[in-house]
Design brief:
The complex is a heterodimer of chains A (456) and B (225). Chain A has 3 domains: 5-53 and 82-168, 2-Layer Sandwich (Beta-Lactamase), CATH 3.30.450; 206-298, Helix Hairpins, CATH 1.10.287; 302-453, Histidine kinase-like ATPase, C-terminal domain (Heat Shock Protein 90). Chain A is 50% helix and 18% strand. Chain A contains 10 helices and 12 strands. Chain A has helices at residues 5-54, 74-78, 145-181, 183-193, 212-259, 264-296, 308-317, 320-325, 343-361, 420-430, and strands at 84-89, 94-98, 114-120, 123-131, 137-144, 304-307, 329-334, 338-341, 366-375, 381-389, 434-439, 446-453. Chain A has a 5-stranded antiparallel sheet with strand order 2-1-5-4-3. Chain A has a 5-stranded mixed sheet with strand order 7-9-10-12-11. A two-stranded antiparallel ribbon of chain A has the order 6-8. With 225 residues, chain B is an alpha/beta fold. The chains are: A alpha+beta (456), B alpha/beta (225). The A-B interface holds A 282, 286, 289-290, 293, 307, 309-311, 313-318, 320-321, 323-324, 329-336, 343-344, 346-348, 351 and B 85-89, 91-92, 104, 106, 108, 111, 155-157, 183, 185-186, 188-193, 196, 199-200.
């Protein structure tokens, strides 16, 4: 079937109309035939009555054959009607009077009153017979069935012609109505086609039929989401370009130093520094990639059921080597915690929390990761993840700002990217989780607690 | 053990593969490098490798399918997955598909060597593809656990805890031994996780399936069995 709405509407409507009309025409054909017969029977009865009342009582006595003629007129030549009548004396079945072309055979050989269709010399005739009150004579009036049918056919042809004309007019009218109704769709299409590729302004939603408005509205919502994603992407590229330049410059400088080193010791020193910058920039690029991931793809696939304690252990293991090099203690206190969420995003959240804690706890520091089931004051279940350290901590007045992108705590020896915690807050938001910050272990340090809505 | 170590490295990045190969050859291990899944599949048909290092994003088929293929053939050759840091889900599905460990890119060569050594040690002497105790059966290759014929869903760490206990049936294992086997790390993370997994396992397999050896650790089966 055609994919155009215009064509489909027109086609469907016309098919329905022609089906209905076909059925109606069928009924009409049958009815015209019957009506023709009934009308003819009625005329015959009337004529027979007139004849009976006009026939003189002594008709049988006259033996003169018919002798009058009708003047030939062009019209009677054209329509050779073969109808005729006979008057019969019932007593001895003698014909008193009759149309000459019928001959002397009775139209109705059985002489029964009323209408009937009879066969005379292989031709069907419609005959009406009527007797007088004294049952002495009978008048028979006949007409070939073919003439009756021809009349019916003529009527049917007229009906058919009228119907075809109506049908064509109707089709034109319907096409016109469809085009007018769908003009707003066409207009919308023109507007969209005329757009530049990245023009994400909402489409006008005034002057729209009520069926189209929700469509345009949801389209506009999609455009807005797309716009937000695009904006995030643009911001990311700008930020990333800025953040990547510094470590790249450092990389080049240290590599140059290593190449031009005079002796083995200074070469090795430069290589060690190069390694350190490589690590820093690879961490930075990881975080930038995470950021891009969160910015551009907030929820492509739905959340899954997740065992948070398994996930935390999996991520914590990545930090074993780093922690043991810094003589830090990583401690994990978990309960089985089931929740719904996005695995990869939660991995990023956990990783950044642990990474931050390790980074700021300092050498020999202690980091505690806990994950447990809790109940809020309101009685709702939640899954709580807390990462605490015993480092120098964050001054209370800066604690909210640390979640802003590229915000760095002033005066800390460790140069962070300023991305980690903003990632954490974005992912928490994605999961409908709340974040609380507080003092860390043993009255010092820093702790971040993320409370996720529990498994319903 | 070290003498005959042959490692198959499946990694499509030539620069990284070259570095890994050089690093591992310093350990006196033989390393074969293949860059795509299809040829790796062919190479793995003859069971000749001691261990496989498998990158998941590969041309001509992905690493996860390759791993599933290996396990479906009841081949228990230890497999280490090399994966990107942000693909935690990939790591999890790899472990669920029967990988023995994973390494996150970018990794350091000495860490890679340590991980490979740990996996080899852990999988050494594993001959039977199926472990059973009472009505609990572990299908090592397919990573399926059944209890009285009914399949039991285990988290990856629960599975590893159970596997370690079953492999050492009749021997009491200390918590740190279990930690070492389950996380494969140096045990620098202090945690209560083993207790959590033992608790979960008892819930799923029956309270008396794992015995507590007071003051020491846990055991499956009777002492000296």
């Amino acid at each position: 079937m055609t994919s155009s709405l215009h064509g489909r509407l027109l086609l469907t409507i016309l098919i329905v109309i022609s089906l209905i009309w076909g059925a109606w025409f069928g009924c009409q054909v049958l009815q015209t035939k019957q009506q023709q017969e009934a009308a003819w029977d009625e005329i015959s009865r009337d004529t027979a009555e007139k004849i009976i009342t006009s026939v003189p009582m002594d008709l049988g006595m006259t033996s003169q054959p018919p002798g009058f003629r009708v003047a030939a007129s062009p019209e009677s030549q054209l329509h050779q009607h073969r109808m005729g009548f006979q008057i019969w004396l019932k007593e001895d079945q003698r014909m008193l009077l009759g149309s000459p072309q019928l001959g002397r055979t009775p139209l109705r050989a059985d002489f029964i009153d009323g209408p009937a269709t009879v066969h005379l010399a292989d031709e069907a005739w419609r005959v009406f017979a009527m007797s007088d009150a004294g049952n002495r004579i009978q008048v028979q009036i006949g007409k070939p069935q073919s003439e009756l049918d021809a009349a019916a056919r003529y009527q049917q042809q007229i009906t058919l012609l009228a119907a075809v004309v109506t049908f064509v007019l109707l089709a034109i009218a319907i096409w016109f109505v469809i085009c007018t109704s769908l003009r707003s769709v066409d207009r919308l299409q023109d507007i969209i086609q005329a757009r530049h590729s990245l023009d994400l302004d909402p489409l006008p939603n005034t002057q729209l039929p009520s069926e189209l408005r929700p469509l345009v509205d949801s389209f506009n919502r999609l455009l807005a989401q797309l716009g937000a994603a695009l904006e995030g992407e643009r911001r990311f590229i700008a930020d990333a370009a800025h953040e990547l330049r510094t470590p790249l410059a450092a990389l080049t400088a240290h590599a140059e130093l290593a190449l031009t080193a005079q002796d083995e010791r200074s070469e090795r020193e430069a290589l060690l520094k190069l390694m350190a910058v490589v690590k820093r920039s690879s961490r930075l690029s990881e975080q930038l990639l995470d950021l891009a991931r969160i910015d551009s793809r907030p929820e492509a696939s739905g959340p899954q059921s997740i065992e948070l304690h398994d996930l935390v252990l999996l991520v914590a293991r990545d930090f074993e080597v780093m922690a043991s090099k810094r003589l830090q203690t990583l401690s994990l206190q978990v309960e089985p915690c089931a929740m719904n969420g996005y695995v990869d995003e939660l991995g990023i959240l956990v990783r950044n929390l642990i990474d931050n804690a390790l980074r700021y706890a300092g050498e020999g520091g202690r980091i505690e990761i806990a994950c447990n089931n809790a109940t809020t004051a309101g009685g709702a279940k939640e899954v709580r993840l807390q990462v605490a350290d015993n480092g120098p901590g964050v001054p209370a007045e800066e604690r909210q700002r640390i979640f802003d992108r590229f915000y760095r705590v002033a005066g800390s020896s460790e140069r962070g990217s300023g991305i980690g915690l903003s990632l954490v807050s974005r992912i928490a938001l994605l999961h409908g989780a709340s974040i609380a910050v507080s003092e860390g272990l043993g009255g010092r340090g820093f702790a971040v607690a993320v409370s996720f809505p529990g498994d319903a | 053990m070290e003498a005959a170590v042959r490692i198959l490295l499946v990694e499509d990045d030539a620069m990284l593969a070259e570095a890994v190969r050089t690093g591992l050859e310093q350990q006196q291990w033989r390393v074969d490098w293949l860059a795509d899944a299809a040829s790796a599949r062919l190479a793995l048909m003859d069971h000749g490798y001691t261990a496989v290092l498998l990158d998941l994003g590969l041309p001509r088929g992905n690493g996860l399918d390759l791993l599933k293929f290996v396990r479906s053939r009841y081949d228990t050759t230890p497999v280490l997955i090399l994966t990107a840091r942000d693909k935690l889900s990939e790591r999890i599905s790899g472990l669920d598909a029967g990988a023995d460990d994973y390494l996150v890119k970018p990794f350091q060569l000495d860490e890679l060597a340590a991980r490979v050594r740990a996996v080899l040690r852990r999988c050494q002497g594993r001959v039977l593809p199926v472990l059973a105790h009472r009505d609990v059966v572990i299908d090592l290759a397919k990573r399926i656990v059944t209890r009285a014929g009914q399949s039991v869903t285990l988290g990856m760490h629960e599975y590893r805890t159970l596997l370690t206990l079953m492999e050492n049936r009749g021997r009491a294992l200390s918590r740190s031994q279990l930690e070492d086997a389950v996380y494969g790390g140096d045990g620098t993370i202090e945690s209560n996780t083993i207790a959590v997994y033992i608790h979960q396992l008892r819930r799923k397999l029956g309270d008396d399936f794992i015995n507590t050896v007071h003051g020491y650790g846990y055991r499956v089966g009777d002492a000296g069995e």
